């Protein structure tokens, strides 16, 4: 995400015929995401979003914070991605195991149910 911020800070209009990419990141104090698309010039941003975490979310394990960032970003960008295939990029590889586990419960199960509405 940093390379896109420093190289091409100008937002582009979405091309509804191209696939969207959602890049997320999380920390104890906030969540951030970028919606982008691949153009002739490379990956270009369509929109950036961020928010602070509340006092309860600040106690989440890092895997859960990264999962929260994905679910939050998908819900914020739903008008762009609904009914379309899209790519999620994150720097936290254990999220795949977290969501693909056969015994997910609690908040992760709720997140998995929300994400099933998307391709």
TrEMBL record:
Nucleotidyltransferase keyword on record: yes
Keywords: Endonuclease, Hydrolase, Nuclease, Nucleotidyltransferase, RNA-directed DNA polymerase, Transferase
MF term (GO), any: hydrolase activity
Domain of life, per lineage: Eukaryota
Pfam families documented for this protein: RT_RNaseH
Matches recorded under InterPro entries: DNA/RNA_pol_sf, Retrovirus_Pol_polyprotein, RT_RNaseH
Residue ranges of every copy of the Reverse transcriptase RNase H-like domain listed in the record: 15-118
Record-linked SUPFAM superfamilies: DNA/RNA polymerases
Protein name as catalogued: Retrovirus-related Pol polyprotein from transposon
């Amino acid at each position: 995400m940093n390379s896109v911020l420093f190289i091409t800070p100008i937002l582009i209009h979405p091309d509804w015929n191209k696939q969207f990419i959602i890049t997320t990141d999380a920390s104890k104090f906030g969540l951030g995401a970028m919606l982008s698309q691949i153009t002739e010039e490379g990956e270009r941003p369509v929109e950036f979003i961020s928010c602070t975490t509340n006092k309860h979310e600040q106690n989440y394990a890092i895997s859960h914070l990264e999962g929260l960032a994905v679910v939050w970003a998908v819900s914020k960008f739903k008008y762009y991605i609904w009914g379309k295939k899209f790519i999620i990029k994150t720097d936290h590889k254990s999220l795949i195991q977290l969501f693909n586990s056969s015994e997910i419960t609690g908040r992760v199960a709720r997140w998995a149910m929300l994400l099933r509405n998307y391709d």
